[in-house]
Design a protein that fits this description.
Length: 408
């Protein structure tokens, strides 16, 4: 074969490759939905979600300025009276309470800070010489609760005041000296675990559940429409409502198993991921009753999600079209999951627990933070079952519509 023929063959192949590529580019860029969903939506979604999540995380660990900070100060020295008085603290009197009772208040978040100065602090500081003293420097004890944003902020503020005062001295005293053997962070395992788990796991759980539902539901309905097998089911003597219920229940069980598997893996690995050895997180602090309630909330959440995806799938003509149409619903579910990062615990308004999926997130938040109200959990379960019944009725009507089920 001559060089000219080889060259012509290569040019022909290049034209064919470019023709195929050009056709694919045209198909992609002429479809606004594909361009938006593939190129614009992922970056926009990540930016918005991470921005909101950042605000939510900061909200969990930073106290609002409007919150009154209650502080007990024992043996307050004259040298620091003005500096402490200038802080936006509500100084409480603990004269009629023991030291253990004051620590208990900090642990139970009834007070934000308990500061103990040594007796005759000013005199001890003046007499102390770090070069010649055989005894440790005077130690200021600050008891706080790291699981409380207000307490954490108050602790940092008080430490800064003491550091500024000590900067004028020559290392004359210590703050929370580890040599004393006292535990100054009064947060319990329940506090630390509840704070982290309630912030992250409801969001992750909703993502896991939706992903599990999305993996099976479109194929069961839109896939059968695409293959034409849905027609065989619809002409059988089985009632359309029974068909809808059967599909929703079977898909829910499969999705539930998938979601629970992902949830267990995340819950068991999260303490190690967050550094549980130092933070005190421990999933064993939850009781069997907590897991039972959580499983019930997860189950009704799956029923809602499967029903919603089934409706979208019934309107779609193919699995690909269904997956594309489900993306906006996934975005909504993800944003609902992020709401667990805002506020201090679950909301108190019972009407909010009638909102599907949002009520599930807030119920999970309450369970993980040990602050759930059984009435709110009951409203969540009942309302989600009612919503599921309404959605199954809609699916039944869609199965009865030839225009919807046999659309091309």
């Amino acid at each position: 074969m001559s060089n000219r023929e080889n060259k012509a063959g290569r040019q022909s192949r290049s034209r064919n490759i470019w023709a195929v590529a050009k056709k694919e580019f045209a198909r992609f860029f002429r479809d606004p939905k594909m361009v938006f969903g593939t190129l614009l939506l992922p970056g926009l979604l990540i930016y918005v979600m991470y921005s909101i999540m950042g605000d939510g995380i900061m909200n969990q660990f930073v106290s609002e300025e409007t919150e009154p900070v209650s502080v007990y100060v024992e043996n307050e020295p004259a040298s620091l009276k003005e500096a402490i008085g200038s802080l936006s603290f509500q100084l409480l009197s603990g004269e009629d309470k023991t030291s253990e009772e004051l620590k208990q208040e900090v642990q139970e978040k009834d007070a934000d800070l308990y500061v103990v100065f040594p007796e005759n602090f000013d005199g001890q500081v003046e007499a102390y010489d770090s070069q010649t003293a055989a005894e440790p420097a005077p130690n200021v004890e600050i008891y706080y609760n790291s699981a409380s944003p207000a307490s954490q902020t108050a602790y940092q503020t008080m430490t800064e005041v003491l550091d500024q005062y000590e900067s004028h001295l020559a290392n004359k005293f210590d703050v929370n000296n580890g040599q004393s053997g006292n535990v100054y962070d009064m947060a319990t395992k329940e506090d630390v675990t509840g704070q982290v788990f309630s912030m992250l796991l409801p969001m992750l759980m909703m993502i896991f559940l939706f992903t599990g539902c999305m993996a099976v539901a479109p194929e069961s309905i839109a896939g059968e429409k695409e293959r034409g097998t849905i027609a065989t089911l619809l002409v059988t003597p089985i009632r359309r409502s029974d068909l809808a219920i059967g599909k929703v229940l079977s898909l829910s069980v499969i999705s539930l198993l998938s979601g629970v598997s992902s949830f267990l893996g995340t819950m068991l690995s999260l303490p190690k991921l967050m550094g549980a050895s130092s933070s005190g997180m421990d999933a064993s602090v939850y009781q069997i009753s907590d897991y039972v309630l959580l499983l019930a909330v997860i189950l009704v959440s799956v029923l809602i999600i499967v029903s919603l995806i089934s409706i979208v799938s019934a309107y779609s003509r193919s699995v690909k079209e269904a997956n594309t149409a489900i993306v906006p619903l996934m975005v909504v579910v993800m944003f609902i999951g992020i709401t667990s990062m805002f506020g201090n615990g679950a909301p108190e308004n019972p009407l909010l627990y009638c909102i599907p999926l949002y009520n599930s997130v807030q119920s999970m938040n309450g369970i993980f933070s040990f602050q759930y109200n059984p009435v709110h959990i009951g409203i969540t379960l009942l309302s989600n079952l009612i919503w599921t019944g309404i959605l199954i009725y809609v699916i039944t009507r869609m199965f009865n519509s030839e225009k919807v089920m046999f659309s091309k």
